[in-house]
Amino acid sequence: MTASVEDLLRGLAPQVLAALTRQTGDFAAAEDAVQEALVEAARHWPADVPDDPAAWLVRVAGRKLLDAVRSDAARRRREQAVASREVPAEPTQQTDDTLLLLLLCCHPSLTATSAVALTLRAVGGLRTGEIAAAFLVPEATMAQRISRAKRTVAASGARFAPPADGERTRRLALVLRVLYLIFNEGYGGAGRVDLVAEAIRLTRGLSALLPDDPEVAGLLALMLLHDARRAARTDARGRLVPLLEQDRGRWDRAEIAEGVAVLQGALRQERRGEYQIQAAIAALHDDAAGAEETDWAQILAWYDELLTVTDTPLVRLNRAVALAEVDGPLVAMDSIEQLDPSVPRLAAVRGHLAELAGDHAAAARFYVEAARRSASSAERDHLLRRAAVAAESSGERLQRGDQTVVQRGVLHLVGEDARQDLQPP
Amino acid sequence: MPKFLLLKHYGGDPDVRCTPMSEWTPSEVAAHIDFQRDIGRMLTESGEFVDAQGLSSDGVWVRYGGPGEPPVVTDGPFPETKELIAGWFLVDVESAERAYEIAAYASSAPGNGGEPIYERIEVRQVMGAPATVE
User: pTM for this one?
Assistant: First the structure.
């Protein structure tokens, strides 16, 4: 299949799903039918693409649904109703349906993991195998995860209908959370579905459905403004490059411009929320020609506002970095003094602040601790390199235990050019 | 979404509540193995299964022999070690707490007399890719 036909299919899938769900009242069965039709398309189309892919999808999914309904003795009564109605010739034009699907797939009864999987299949139109590969789990596991998710949603009594008025904001917030999680999953590897691109595509779609919702626009802007830095995040050797060290010439200026435009539209509505604020911070970074031109005072002001919306340890931690640039590292250290030691990246930020304060020995110790706690090997390697640099700057040797951590991280304490223990002769 | 490796070790846990497996009856051994299989099935059903393997109790340590030299293969510097890995479950779960729940269940596998063995299962988080948002 060409990329454009694949895109067309994925775009149609939720519309067909919505139409079939409305018709039968059975989201789970309709979703299975659409998925089977997509699998069949993947199998047969590369050789022979239909003239009208949309009509094909509707027809095949509809037929599979009828087959499933007919073979299920318990659904005989519904069979009467379905057989007497025609499957619509075209997917319904009710774009609201995609929103309803999203709300259903991000239902509060679901764990984040389940909601992510179900959303990617039912709304994203991805095949089970593609989603499984993206998350590095077996296909059978992902299939089960999604089946269970649909059963959970059904058991909760959720219906394919708009939520009650008072519930809408909360339910939509869950959708945004799920889209954000998909985005954060990362770029994956070669041959695997790009979840970042999927998240942006789905959020774009949602933003088009809800043009007056500034937080949806804020989330889209946030994604674009971060994705714009993609090419600069890793160096030629695949190592992680932190924001302040990135080659800004490699940032995607067009994507930044789009993100800024979307954000400005959102901010004009004067209904600020966490995603708009995070996007504003990202925009300020993206606006600076170089790290030294970053408008830290303005970034700090945005973090102060973010705290009023969502006061979490992570926000306080990120704010501390900005605070250090404005009021110095000691003030910043005070601001995170009370944070729980288990907060992710706390040690990494403390290391950064210690370095700013000129205490390289402490910085090295913090970076080693941060490396120990890191959940990503790329991040851990980066922290170990910083530990090595800090140790060298301090003129002190690391404690024996810390040395072992560094050596196990396959690095020697020789500045930036790390030699690997496993290098062949 | 985080992945955890749940490692089962051959012996080495002084608090384990069973005799060595070599002293069990065939049906007790079968029950223990069936339990492991059931865990695999449970994890597949729950959409959390990634991998499960058993390791042979035979093994060696291999070291680089030097330039132009063959690998150096030995039984290891710790011939008395009882901490050999026996096998693992690799799971993809919602949280660390869920991984601990699964490990605790694995630890209750039946031993001699059909009683839970209370074995220590090592739980290690698998490193993933960095988050997109920096």
Answer: 0.88
